[in-house]
Amino acid sequence: MYIPSSYQSFSPMTLSKIRSATASSQTVYSKDVGAVNIKSSKEIPNVESNLELYHDIREVVIDVQSFFIFGKATTVLPTFTIHLTPLTYLPKVDEPRRDWVASVAVPAFMAHREDSAVRRFVTIGTGSGLDAIAALDIFDLESLAITDLHPVVVQTAASNIKAATAGCPSLTKAVESLVAHSGDLLTPLKDHEGQALHSGQASSTYAAERYEQIPAIANDSLLALHWLALVQAKTLLAPGGAVLSSMGGRVPLAAMLEMARSAGYVPQVLTYTWKIQSEPEEVIGGYNKNQEDGTRPFYFYLAEVLEREFAGITPLEGGRVAAWIEQQLAPYRLDAVVAYEAHKTGIIIGHTVAVVRSVISDVQGPA
């Protein structure tokens, strides 16, 4: 299961190897929305039939070799067209360094593949479906599932997945097994215990208020949705299964690891890298407001500093020495208030990203 960083304050996640399931799925967003309960790709409605309702759906051409900046595509089509609805979290096709799938998910999946045979995959908050497409390319999947908050986003993502894999016989079985659901976090999978999970990015801004008892470390670090997804994932993970939580390093690594432990997992930093801040006005501005309201400080960096400090370090290598890199970066960090002021002057701001791999505490070894 994979959880992207839109779950910070809203977050993402991925699960792999889930109990005997006929399909795998990704889930991580949202609030209670009407149920879309699609059992296979053949049952996914044709999004084009709804274009009168979503007239501003746009097309984007994906060149995989240039977009997946840390890896080369081997199985999906080298070039394909995706559709994006007004509710879809927009991929940063022209600036992969700003994009979560291109700069974070792809290297994390490649790192996870080194010691894990992933057969079932779920994505939570898939958005455009590019995270699922990356998973199909990197893992040898037997089944796949995607989730998002809005039915039309899920339908469109499913169509994008089919477009990216058309005429790819090695992917036929996994794509035909596709399960697509809309709903809140892992709730869409509550009747599917034993399925695999992974998430991308999507309509996180529409998440409903939640009343679960969240540990202070998760609340204070704006990692509550990551914590909730980890807790809910326990009934879905098979022995040896793992959750990959992709988190922007605006809080210390120690806080991320403590959050995962508080949910009953044994976590490790799988990959550590950096990206340019997407939607800087909204995101940095949001952290700025939280900090001004009295929360803990949240940290950013000048993009040029991150580029220099991470030069020559792959995401997997970064994961192995993440604590050392974090220490090296400490003199350069900007709290949210300072970062927001810098952004307003036109300075490009970035942040670190950790993908934390978590296994249930009574399970030994990697997923």
From TrEMBL:
Family annotation (InterPro entries): SAM-dependent_MTases_sf
Protein name: Uncharacterized protein
Organism: Piloderma croceum (strain F 1598)
